[in-house]
Design brief:
This protein has helices at residues 19-30, 45-55, 64-70, 85-94, 109-122, 136-146, 183-200, 276-300, 307-319, 327-348, 361-365; strands at residues 10-15, 35-41, 60-61, 75-78, 98-102, 126-129, 153-162, 204-212, 223-230, 234-242, 248-255, 258-263, 267-270, 352-353. The protein is α/β, with parallel strands linked by helices. It is globular and about 60 Å long.
């Protein structure tokens, strides 16, 4: 449990030492001078030993409960399978620890709201792991929307098409095939909806969904297309899938004064005054940015040179009282309302309102 005053170096406990922790979070935290990885928790003994040696973690526990009860910590990162996020994050908050919780922060709106309320009531930082918020393109998109450069928003098309756990994934990520994990809907779909909320303030009210299974042996639908209606007469689509090789997350936002096309590798603001020169400038700008990023990664060989580092810096700054990030945990509640509505629409084969989810809420959290 943390002391009354925050020590010079924040003591972090890592709950779960799988791929997301070793590829992204641990390298990012290792780059911060005011952080120390105090201990970790990992049920897989081989993975625990390998990660302990690689990152010099002083102590590893087989059970995260022992970690948070016995170690003098200030904060934890929760990097467990989706079905365990709420349980672990709640246990840490109850011990008075700040929490960075990988997305999703639960499996239903009640779990997300429960964690947000716990953190708020205890004066603790709860940061959902929506790291794409820190990508420069999406930050630019948010600022463009803040300035109302697109006029009145009419339509939004959002896609997240990725290869999923069949290709390029850690062999120990079998939990992705567990129906409790939520499949691609809770994997990339949660990122997609969070970005729409973050960039546009979108409040989705109704969804209608069609879905298919495209990957053999998968116990849940992995090819999802949804239409939605949102507040202020906005309509749009959400396309979420595993099995695609393009690995694309793209938002297209259309308003009365222009359109925005944005992804992690592309940014284009189209206006009525735009033309060939503007299009050429957009293409050259994107090409220059991609080449700079790839060359920098090749020269530096630092996995911490990523948006995960920016996310870690923001989390630590919030703990130190230098940043305010609490709205993100409440945004996560609406993200879960939309995810639950999509799941209900799939099950009931009809449009579902995000404001009328009480019928299936308890089942969704089970």
């Amino acid at each position: 449990m943390p002391e009354t005053s925050i020590p010079q170096k924040l003591r972090i406990g890592m709950i779960g030492l799988g791929g997301i922790a070793t590829r992204s979070h641990l390298p990012a935290l290792a780059a911060l001078p005011d952080v120390v990885i105090q201990a970790g928790a990992e049920i897989d003994a081989y993975q625990a030993a390998r990660t302990q040696q690689r990152f010099g973690i002083p102590k590893i526990y087989a059970d995260y409960r022992a970690l948070i009860e016995q170690e003098p910590l200030d904060a934890v990162y929760v990097c467990l399978p989706n079905a365990l996020h709420h349980e672990a994050a709640s246990a840490a908050l109850q011990r008075g620890l700040h929490v960075y919780c990988e997305k999703p922060v639960g499996l239903c709106p009640q779990e997300a709201q429960d964690l947000a309320e716990q953190a708020e009531n205890a004066g603790l930082v709860l940061m959902p792991g929506y790291h794409l918020r820190f990508h420069e393109h999406f930050l630019r998109a948010r600022e463009l929307m803040r300035q109302r450069r697109l006029g009145k928003i009419l339509q939004i098309q959002a896609s997240a098409i990725y290869s999923g756990p069949y290709r390029g994934w850690d062999p120990k990520s079998d939990w992705h095939f567990d129906p409790r994990s939520g499949g691609p809907l809770y994997d990339w779909g949660s990122h997609l909806i969070d970005l729409l909320v973050y960039i546009t303030g979108l409040e989705i009210e109704t969804v209608a969904v069609e879905a298919q299974k495209s990957l053999p042996g998968l116990p849940l639908q992995d090819n999802i297309a949804a239409t939605f209606q949102a507040r202020n007469c906005i309509v749009g689509t959400l396309n979420i899938a595993w099995g695609g090789r393009g690995n694309l997350l793209m938002l297209q936002i259309h308003g009365t004064s222009g359109s925005l096309l944005v992804s992690d590798e592309y940014y284009e603001h189209r206006t009525p005054q735009g033309g060939g020169l503007n299009k050429l400038g957009t293409l050259l700008g994107n090409a220059r940015e991609i080449l700079t990023q790839k060359a920098g990664a090749f020269i530096r060989h630092k996995s911490s040179d990523t948006i995960y580092l920016k996310a870690a810096q923001c989390f630590i700054a919030a703990i130190q009282g230098k940043a305010q990030i609490q709205p993100a945990m409440w945004d996560a509640v609406h993200v879960h309302q939309v995810l639950t509505a999509i799941a209900a629409s799939l099950e009931q084969n009809r449009p579902i309102s995000t404001g009328m989810l009480s019928v299936n809420m308890e089942r969704a959290c089970a």
